[in-house]
Amino acid sequence: MKRLFLIAVVLSIAACATKKSYIGGTRVPYTSNNKSVLDAVEQYRLAVERGDAPALITMAHPQYWEDSGTPSGSDDYGYEGLKTVLASRLGAATEIRYTMRYMGVSHECKELAARCKATVDVLIDASFTIQNAMGKASRPDKRDQNQLLLEWDGSRWLFLAGM
């Protein structure tokens, strides 16, 4: 009987030891890399809610490239284009609500080092107020999935795509 009890205790301890911990509010496993990436993405999310285009530009990598997920290259833009897009879109919007559900994080490296890249899969739920061409306010709701690509520059994560 003591032997069975001892086996049960050992198995219980082993089961607890393998239990994963997750970053708060997500199903993303807790690692220091995952936490640092999601902290950077959360700063991005808050800057979007504030409509803070200058802060967002400081979060973008100089080699930022956006292909907008379309086969045509006519809507693609780089770092300079990002400045224009952010200024025009955020300048036209007020009362921005921008939430993200973090679905997954993957890395191309084990430890933070230069050229370390991370991909974050997110579900976005957003709304904002804009004035239409006739001056009437509208408040569209947007729901989408997105993939953010970031690169570690040696001191912080910068966005390469997905903003």
- Unreliable spans are 4-11
Percentage beta strand: 25-35%
Order of helices and strands: HHHEEHEEEEE
Structural class: alpha+beta
Distance between the termini: 61 Å
> In the CATH hierarchy, what is the architecture at level 2?
Roll
Average pLDDT over all residues:
87
Count of distinct structural domains: 1
Tell me the radius of gyration. 21 Å
- The beta-strand count equals 7
CATH class: Alpha Beta
| Tally of helical segments | 4
Helix fraction, binned, reads 25-40%
Q: What gross morphology would you assign? A: globular
CATH topology: Nuclear Transport Factor 2, Chain: A
Q: Which sheet architecture does the biggest sheet show? A: 5 strands, antiparallel
Features:
163 residues
